[in-house]
Structure formats: C-alpha cells, structure tokens
Specification:
heterodimer, A: alpha/beta, 6-stranded mixed β-sheet, 38% helix, globular, B: 477 residues, 0% strand
C-alpha cells in the first residue's frame, strides 16, 4: 500500500482528438465516499474507465491500494468493482447464474459466493426472481442485479457510474445504505451522478469536473467558499463552477 | 469442477451464453423434430455417397484436387462468417468491458473469444463433413476422420485472420464497413461456387477439361503445395504439419492482438465514430410517409442487405438465361414458378429486416398512430423494394411471353401477400441480437416461408405449364 491511499491519480491525461481529461490529480482515502460531478461530456465516465483499467491514459499514473492500474492491472482489478452507466448483464442468465459467473471471475470461494449471493439477492428484493432469466427484468431489477454483482466479491474500491438510475425510492435508499455501510467498513467509493441531492447527502467529499479538469474539491462548505456563494446550495455551486 | 477464471471455465460460460441465445434453443419445440429428420436424411445421403466413393476410387491427384477445392471454399466461407462473428463478440455483444474490468487475464478472454468463433464457424462444416467422414470410416476408411482436426485447424486460422482483419478494418472504417467486407467475401465466394456449378452450361467441355487439368497437382506424389489437401486425406505427416501451421498462425495473431485487447482498444466503447459528415434525412414529412421512410431507411441501412439480396436473387441467373433464349428447360413458362418463389423469398427477407431492425417499437406505439397503419407501412416498404427488384424480370416475361403474365401476376400477388403477413408475425432470423437484446427471428418463420413460396410456385406452375400433369403419364408409361 502507498501512504494508505485507496486511489491516487496524478497527471491523468486522455485525448480523443481533443483533450478530454487534462492533467487530473485525485486522491481518495479508504472509507471515503467521493462524488464526482460534472456536466455532460466533462470526462467523468472516461476518468472512471481509466481507473477501472478499461482504457489506457495518454499520460499520468493511477494506483489503487498501491497497485499501478497500467503496470499491474490484474492486482488492481482484484480489489475493484466497476459499475457502468448502462447495466452490463447477460439477459439469458438468471441473477443467480450471473452472480455465480461474477464470483468466478473474482475467484470467490464457491461456498462463500453462494452465501453472499443469497444474502444480496434477498436484501435487494430479487430472491423471488433468482432463477428467472434477466431478459424480462425492468431497468431497476437489472440495475440491482448488476449492483449485487459489483458487491459479491466485497471490493475495497467501488467505481459507480450513475448507480441510482432506474431504481425506485425504496431501492435507492437501500442501495445508499449498503454503499454507506461498505464505506464505513473501510471501502472507498467513487460515484458519478447528476442527482446533486444524492451527492450532497452521501458524499464525504465532492469533486467538480469540467472540461477535463477538476474545478473544485471538498465538502459543501469548501465548495461554497471556492465558488464564492456562501449560502448557496450544491446546485448553485455546481452551476457557478461549471458555467 | 472447472477452475475459476480458467480457460475451460470461461469457455463454458461463453458456450452457455451462445447456446441460450441460439435460435435452435429458442424454437426447439418447433424445429427439433424437423432438424433430426434432416440430420437423418443427411446421414443417409452421406452413406450412399461414401459407398459410391469406395466403389469408384479416384486417382490420388484427383482426390487432392477435390480436397484442395473443398478446403479453399470452406476457408473463405469460414473467414467471412468469422469476420461477422468477430465483430459481434468484440463490438456488438458489449460484455468485453465487463470482463476486462475483472481480474481475469485479458489474453485468456481474447483466446476464449477466438476459439469460440473458430468453433462456431467450424460447426456446420464439421457436421456436414463429419457425416461423410463417419460413413467412410464405417465402410473401413478411417483416414476420412481427419476431416475433424483439419476443419477445426482451418477454422482456427480463419478466426485468427478474421480477428486481425476486423480490428484493422474497424479501426480504419468502423464496424459497418468491416461487416460489409465479410459479407462481400461470402458473396463473391457464393457467386463463384454458383458459377463453377453452372460452368458445364456455358463452357465447352474441352475448355473445362483443360481448366481442371491445370489445377491438378503434378503427377507423382503431390508436394508441399498440396499439404493441406493431403492432411484432409489423412496422410499423417501432412495432417501434423497442417495442424502445427494452424496453431502457429492462431498463436501469432493472438499474441499480436493481445496488447490492444488488454488496453481496451478492441471494444464497443473504444470505437468512437466520427460524426456523420454527409447530410442524412432532415426532410420532415407527414405521418404516413414519415413511417414509410423510416422503414425504407432501416431496410437500406441493414448491413447484409446487398449480399443477402444477391444470394437470393441468384435464381435470376437461369431465369435471365431462359428469357434470353440461352437455356432451354422445357419452355419459357419455367421462369414463372422460379420468379414466384423468388418474390416470396425476397418479400419475407425484406419484411424480416424491417421487423428485426426496429430498435424502438415502443416509440411508434406511444404515438397517436393506429397499429394497423404501422403494420401496413412496414408491409408497403417491403413490397415496394421487392417489386422494384422483380420489375425487370417481369418486364422480360411481358416481352418474351405475354400470355404468361396473368398467371405470373396472380401468383406473385399471392406469394407477396402471404409472406409479408407471415414475416410480420414470424420474421426470419436476419439480425444478430445486440448485448442484452433477444433475437426476434425464428427458424419456424424460415421453414414456413420456404413452404409458402414453394406452394405458390407450384400453384403458378399449375397455372402456366402447358400440360402440368404430363409427368403422371410418364410414371404410368
């Protein structure tokens, strides 16, 4: 481990014709719940994809719990879970089969994986559907199945891209509680969201990304100070910093 | 119990996903028995063919030529299919990112994908070639069993080259052009095989004989050029060398692409198409024509439209030859059932493309448009394209034998209406389902469509043939 960081990003740069991420620095500690906010096209998903090891940066270093994502990707991925904005799910597998596959990918011991899968499906209200193929599921049910997949190997670092899309109020509250308890147990969580209330209530720290650069970072008070809108809401701060 | 993250474990997952998505499984209650029947018929034909091969043994040079030709055809057809499959498993299915985000070695994921594609493109040829090989082995010719390793080795090479080609083509031109390249290859091959089959009709026998002799290996023991053919004929040294070559090509491509795959450069998310520069659409229309134009656009932008239409339209070759007076098969009337059959098959294909390419059916359903109008629009678009393609041969019939027109028009109208209605309800499988979407075509639709086209073709034949029951008197005689 490197100075106890869960995530350490230095000078991260990526271009697709134009610069999408420009010398980004980011540090997240274990147990921290970090919300990465930004307007459409700010580079949030690209940042998460590079951290997840799905895309090579043009420049910069990324390390997760001391593992260099570019040089030692398998070790980094072993402690991470990545949840994309569109649920990647095999429609022709049932939730139980999907979790069995995900657990296998992360080499979770089979008996332990079964117990965790049962617990997750029960908690997320999918137990009654555990043997149905996912093809008939609603968007919310698919999202919950994918979330269960992200949690089954008990990752120490969760990368969540719009995790609350499609969830009803009760499910969203449940997922928030699950994520908070993971953070309380020492896991680091980074999520992107366009629902600013969620970020304000859940995150211990918020980063605002715009034009590939981190415009401001900190808790709400720090952001208000940075933006110069003393009593403003997160929405006021966000709009001020991104316009 | 397979080791988690292992090659076989991942391959098992791949097979499970493929099997559950296969049309055979989705429509098994309808096709299992017919498929079994067809398999038995094939095995029966293979037994008869094997018996004939044993009774009339050919010289080695001729056997080598036949083996060479088969391997050549199989390879190009496998390569074309493998290109389409490679695009599907890399860019369309969309689970590459999901697997790359896990701590499984990316090289293993790529290897499983490549072997999976090889197995899927080899399967139909292994089933066909296997039926003959089994029959030959049954009659005491075990060398024929070499077809199994040889075809799988050939499929490994085809899959490896397909992955390399697809990655290069997608990088340069995008998945659409890459897919078209695969289709074009199959089309060229199909036309070539068809032309070769028809060669005795348009080439003098002496010229054809010279052509075949030129392709024969030199007298004596065939050399290195016939290595693969000799492998297929069960020569142990050639078989071992061929397999070693196949594995080497596969490994080289796998190693060459491994870095790109691990870097995430070979997935749907990595491919960022440039904005479409040319003007497309933008002419706002009324309700009916807007829906009709949407259907025509879906149809015209279907990736396999040209190749699959040309395949089906190969029936036109004898039709045109008959209309031009170059081929005599009992009279001009023979073209009528052929044209009716083709009309039915084209109509079914076009309506299936429109139904299968509809990505947002709920959008139109949520609009204040009657459902009947939506269906009518799809039917009109498919009918319009079918009739447009059939106009020229029908004009040929009008000029050459106008008396056949009433029968032809009546039967064409019948087959068009029947297959368009059938295709709306039971489209044939023409589009591969994207990741997370179910395939909506069925084999039942395909089988019924051929049945309906054949029935109308027979009806047309009864209408236009001068003496349709003449064959009965031949049997009695």
């Amino acid at each position: 481990m490197q100075n106890g960081h869960a995530l350490r990003v230095r000078g991260l740069t990526k271009s697709f014709g134009r610069k999408v991420i420009d010398a980004l620095d980011l540090t997240i500690m274990p147990g921290e719940f970090y919300a990465l906010l930004g307007p459409n096209g700010a580079g949030k998903t690209t940042t998460l994809r590079m951290i997840a090891g799905l895309m090579r940066p043009d420049a910069g270093d990324i390390s997760v719990f001391g593992h260099d994502v570019v040089r030692n990707p398998l070790a980094a991925k072993a402690v991470m879970a990545w949840l994309p904005d569109e649920p990647l799910l095999y429609d022709r597998l049932s939730p139980m089969e999907y979790l069995e596959f995900v657990a296998g990918l992360w080499r979770v011991e089979p008996a332990l994986a079964r117990a965790r899968a049962e617990e997750l499906l029960e908690t997320l209200g999918l137990w009654g559907h555990r043997h149905e193929r996912c093809e008939g599921f609603s968007r919310g049910m698919k999202q919950k199945t994918v979330l269960a997949g992200a949690l089954i190997h008990e990752p120490r670092f969760l990368l969540l891209d719009e995790p609350f899309t499609g969830l009803d109020a009760a499910s969203a509250r449940l997922v928030k509680q699950m994520l908070q308890s993971r953070a309380a147990a020492g896991a680091a969580v980074i999520l992107t969201t366009h629902i600013l209330d969620v970020a304000e209530r859940l995150a211990t720290r918020i980063g605002i990304l715009s034009g590939g650069q981190l415009r401001a970072e900190g808790d709400l008070t720090a952001l208000q100070l940075h933006a110069g809108v003393a009593a403003g809401s997160l929405e006021d701060v966000f709009l001020h910093l991104t316009n | 119990m397979l080791r988690q993250q292992g090659f076989l474990w991942l391959f098992g997952h791949e097979l499970r996903v493929l099997w559950r998505g296969s049309i055979l499984v989705r429509t098994q209650k309808y096709v299992l028995l017919p498929a079994l029947g067809v398999a038995l018929i094939f095995q029966g034909i293979a037994l008869a063919l094997a018996w004939s091969i044993i009774k009339h043994p050919l010289p080695l040079a001729e056997m080598v030529l036949i083996a060479d030709l088969n391997l050549f055809f199989f390879f190009l057809l496998m390569l074309s299919r493998a290109m389409t499959r490679a695009i599907d498993v890399l860019y369309a299915r969309g689970d590459v990112d999901f697997l790359l985000a896990s701590p499984i070695a990316p090289g293993r994921v790529l290897a499983v994908r490549m072997v999976g594609v090889a197995a899927s493109v080899a399967a139909p040829w292994l089933l066909l070639g296997g039926a003959l090989a089994n029959a030959l082995a049954w009659f005491g010719q075990p060398w024929a069993l070499a077809v199994y390793p040889m075809l799988f080795g050939e499929a490994l090479v085809a899959a490896a080259l397909a992955f390399a080609l697809v990655v290069a083509l997608v990088g340069q031109f995008g998945p659409r052009i890459a897919r078209r390249a695969g289709h074009a290859l199959a089309l060229v091959m199909g036309v070539f095989i068809f032309a070769l089959g028809q060669a005795p009709r348009f080439m003098p026998a002496a010229a054809l004989g010279r052509f075949w002799r030129a392709l024969m290996p030199p007298p004596g023991a065939p050399g290195l050029a016939s290595l693969f053919a000799r492998g297929l004929l069960g020569h142990a040294d050639a078989l071992a060398a061929s397999l070693a070559f196949s594995l080497l090509v596969f490994l080289l491509v796998w190693l060459g692409l491994g870095g790109q795959f691990a870097a995430g450069n070979m997935s749907a998310a990595a491919y960022r198409p440039a904005g479409a520069a040319q003007r497309q659409g933008g002419n706002f229309r009324g309700n009916a024509s807007a829906v009709f134009m949407k259907n025509l656009r879906l149809l015209s932008r279907f990736p396999g439209l040209v190749s699959q239409t040309v395949y089906r339209a190969l029936t036109l070759v004898p039709v045109l030859a008959i209309l031009a007076g170059k081929l005599r098969l009992g009279g001009v009337w023979v073209v009528v059932p052929l044209l009716v059959f083709l009309t039915g098959q084209l109509a079914l294909f076009f309506i299936s493309v429109i139904v299968g390419s509809e990505d947002a059916p709920e959008l139109a359903d949520s609009a204040p448009v009657r459902e009947a109008r939506l269906r009518a629009s799809a039917v009109s678009a498919a009918a319009y394209i079918t009739l447009l393609l059939m106009a020229l041969p029908v004009l040929g019939v009008l000029l050459r034998a106008p008396t056949l027109m009433p029968g032809l028009i009546a039967a064409m109208a019948g087959v068009l209406a029947s297959n368009l209605v059938l295709g709306l309800r039971l489209p044939i499988p023409v589009t591969r389902a994207a990741f997370g979407k179910a395939q909506n075509g069925t084999l039942l639709g395909l089988i019924l469509g051929v049945g309906v086209s054949s029935t109308w073709a027979v009806a047309a034949w009864l209408l236009v043939a001068p003496n349709p029951l003449a064959w009965l008197s031949h049997i009695r005689g």
